[in-house]
Amino acid sequence: MSSLVKDAAAFKSALARQDYTSWHSNPTPPQPPGDAGGEEHGEKKKKKKPKNNVVYSQPADTGTGNNVNTQLVYAVAHLKSTPNPMRLEDIAIVTNTPLITDSALLEKFKHHDRVAYDPKTDLYSYKHDYNVRSKPALLTEIQRHTRKGRGLAVRALKDSWKEAPQAIEELEKEGEVFVTRTAKDGQLRMVFYNEVKGDDQGPIEVEKEFVDLWHSLKVPNETDLLKDLASEGLQATVAEVVIPKTAPAKKKGKKTVHRQRQPKIINTHLAGIDLSKDYTPTK
């Protein structure tokens, strides 16, 4: 019993030492020892506002919209970015367009000049300028166009096959094609098939007879060149001369003098009366 009495007395003494007024006025929860400095200075930590990444100056992306032509552009653009054919349902789901429910949109999509439909597989694909999907097919396409006297633009080939530039560089190293590049940054511009290829020992050498004939040709001067062209029924090309437009000349004539127009007096009954003087009735 003596220990219980001692504990009760210690508890009562602890309650007597508590400052209840300050506890009720400022009931702050206990803090860890590291935050004791903030309590001493009375500083309160402010809650950080969540960052908002919305740019209000830019219009919000509202999706594919409600216009049929806008939805058609989204559908065709996605079909262009996909190398493999797709089902109509998959195109509608990915692009979020009503291709299945909207008959007008479906009709425009089917009759688009860049959309190809295979009734056997019921799949849709994009019509590229060149049907190229491999390095041998690319070489065949370049060879076919070179025989017609023209090369191929690398940009158009890249739109048909994204790996076309890398394949063209490999064909150039193998000596299969010739490539022209831009002067500014050296990017691939045009590609031609190499019709004169050498063997393992090196390029083919032109015979000396043809080399001598080539160097024996001389270009005549400007006067004789025009005569030689006229004798062969040809005509020199002349660049179109742009005549600068001149402002129409002003016609010379007498200068018109603006004279001050005399006001017309309407109140004729006031003629002869000086209105600047005060009126004095006559007696």
Q: What is the spatial order of strands in the main beta sheet?
A: 3-5-4
Number of strands: 5
Most strands sheet: 3 strands, antiparallel
Instruction: Give the helix tally.
Output: 11
Element string (H = helix, E = strand): HHHHHHEEHEHHEEHH
Please report which band the strand proportion falls in: under 5%, 5-15%, 15-25%, 25-35%, 35-45% or over 45%: 5-15%
Helicity range of the residues? 25-40%
Mean pLDDT: 77
Radius of gyration: 47 Å
Q: Based on Cα principal axes, name the global outline.
A: flat
Low-confidence stretches: none
Oligomer: single chain
Pairing-aware structural class of the strands and helices?
Answer: mainly alpha
End-to-end distance: 140 Å
Characterization of the model:
This is Transcription initiation factor IIE subunit beta. Helix content is 38%, strand content 7%. It is built from 11 helices and 5 strands, in the order ααααααββαβααββαα. The strands form 2 sheets. A 3-stranded antiparallel β-sheet has the order 3-5-4. Helix 4 packs across helix 5.
